Amino acid sequence: MSSKKIPSSPSGNRSYDNCLPSTSACSSKQLNSSSSPIRESGNGRSISSNKLSTPVEPTPSKWVSLNVGGKVFTTTLSTLLNKEPGSMLARMFAQEDAMCPSDKDGHGAYLIDRSSQYFEPILNYLRHGQLIFDGHLSPEGILEEAKFFGIEGLIPQLESLVQQQQTANMEDLPLTRRDVISALIKTSHMTELRFQGVNLAGADLRKLDLRHINFKYACLQRCNLSLANLNYCCLERADLSFANLEGAQLLSVKGLCANMEAANLQGCNFEDPSGVRSNLEGVNLKGACLENSNMAGVNLRVANLRNANLKNCNLRAAVLAGADLERCNLSGSDLQEANLRGANLKDAQLELMLTPLHMSQAIR
Fold first, then answer.
1. Where are the alpha helices (DSSP H) in 173-231?
2. d(Cα 37, Cα 105) in Å, to the nearest integer?
3. How far is residue 18's CA from residue 139's CA, in Å, rounded to a whole number?
4. pLDDT in tens, 130-161
């Protein structure tokens, strides 16, 4: 019985390589179909991905511009977010749970309808943690902006500043008639009461007994002292400009270099029967009215009496040496034995003088 020969491979062994597909080749194709294909390039093999790339959101700029009340401020997001994360500004630009930012101007700055001058100290506080502002700014204004923007760390500091300022303003307020009377009833009229350097501007002190009070350096501007008793008072360098002293008693008063410009001293009495002179040396009585006042023996050496009204005044034995009496009205006044050496009497009115001036009295 004949049998068929199966052809052998050239090497003498049977081979099935050409009949069955290679397992490794199949698996390689499957891998290549699910992975990146290999492509030939001029420089060699390159691998390209078939996966769809997910779009990357653009990173927000770390700079932001704010148009506050018409003024543009440029700052960083970290400045707005880090110092006060719970503030309105932080919530406007936070990535999560952010508030809807406001509209933008033509240059892309966020519009905020608040005061720019009070916002600037708040922004600087967010930058470096220190409250610094110019002296002309009111702490109350900055406090209102801090409350609006929710800058909680700044509010207690500003509230303390506001309280301190209000206390200081209360201390600077001038004393009233009630304050003065309260001090008077607790002190004997023979005891010197010290109101030195006190602010009494505009106070109503008419008809009060103010004897022996020390008003040195006090502010008595526009104060009403009509018919008041100011005997033996110290008014040295006090400010009595535009004050009303009509009919006041000023016996033996000490008013060295006091400012009585444009004050009303009509009908005042300066003459002390005991012979003690009132001392008004260097006083400023420019434009003041002293009509019908009794100023006998008063020391007005080198006083400024320009344009003052001394009509019908009693100036007997008064010392006016070196005084400036230019354009002063001395008509009807009594200058007997008055010392006018070196006084300036240019354009002074000397009509109806009770006693004529002697050359020894007036040198220029």
1. 177-184
2. 52
3. 96
4. 999 998 899 999 999 999 999 999 999 999 99
CA 119 and chain centroid, separation = 16
Contacts of 206 (CB under 8 A, 6+ apart): 224, 225, 226, 227, 228, 244
Treating both helix axes as pointing N-terminal to C-terminal, what angle do 139-149 and 155-172 enclose, rounded to 10 degrees?
A: 160
Decide: 299 and 317 in contact? Cβ < 8 Å. no
Tell me if 118 sits within 8 A of 143, measured CB to CB: no
Would you say 288 and 269 are in contact if contact means Cβ atoms under 8 Å apart? no
CA dist 349 and 359 (Å) reads 17
Report the SS3 class of residue 278: coil
| Length of the chain measured in residues | 364
Residue type, 50: N
Judged by DSSP in three states, 314 sits in: strand
pTM of the model as a whole? 0.57
* 73-82 per-position pLDDT tens digit: 999 999 999 9
Hey, how many other C-beta atoms are within 10 angstroms of the C-beta on 227? Answer: 15
Distance CA 217, CA 239 (A): 7
